[in-house]
Design brief:
Elements lengths: L2 E4 L12 E5 L4 H6 L10 H9 L7 H10 L2 E5 L1 E6 L8 E5 L3 H4 L6 E5 L1 H10 L1 H4 L4 E3 L11 H8 L6
Parallel strand pairs: 2-3, 2-6, 6-7
Antiparallel strand pairs: 1-4, 4-5
Helix pairs in contact: 2-7
């Protein structure tokens, strides 16, 4: 059974952020933890640590430090939606997030979306509003089994160019 769920996590950014990474909507684990990419099998933190040559963060504070020290802002495309568990394929009745809170504060050079679902909803609800195209990177979700950790790291190295 699906029900409307509201995004419980504030965007992470500061005035020095140059890269914006957008997921689709936080998983149940992320919503429980109150921070992005909280599912232990999600490879987001391992990928970023490899891209930037640092230790994989474990705590929310370490994750915040990794992001901000590399000028990365993180949020999601969707502010609320109907969803069953963490299933992206069940998402409907989307209300998008207002990215202007980030874009007015930080000089974002490039917007990346984490996977095809985030890309689909970004293009449908946000792209025209902000007048910017997002670069789609392969999803770090454990559901994206077609991509090995090594392949993900190689593709995600693109964010290090900003």
């Amino acid at each position: 059974m699906s029900n409307t769920v509201f995004h419980p996590i504030e965007p992470l950014y500061d005035k020095n952020s140059r890269i914006l990474v957008l997921g689709s909507f936080p998983s149940q684990k992320s919503r429980e933890q109150g921070f992005f990419y909280g599912h232990p099998q999600n490879r987001f933190w391992r990928v970023l640590a490899a891209v930037f040559g640092c230790e994989t963060p474990n705590t929310v504070e370490q994750k915040r430090e990794l992001l901000l020290s590399h000028r990365i802002a993180v949020w999601d495309v969707i502010a609320s939606c109907e969803i069953i568990g963490s299933s992206d394929s069940s998402i409907k009745n989307v209300v998008p997030n207002d990215l202007s809170v980030i874009l007015k504060t930080a000089n974002i050079k490039c917007i990346f979306v984490n996977g095809k679902t985030a890309e689909k909803f970004y293009n449908r609800y946000i792209k025209e509003r902000v007048g910017r195209t997002a670069v789609c990177l392969p999803s770090t979700s454990p559901a994206n089994a077609a991509w090995s950790l090594e392949r993900l790291i190689e593709k995600w190295r693109t964010i290090g160019e900003y």
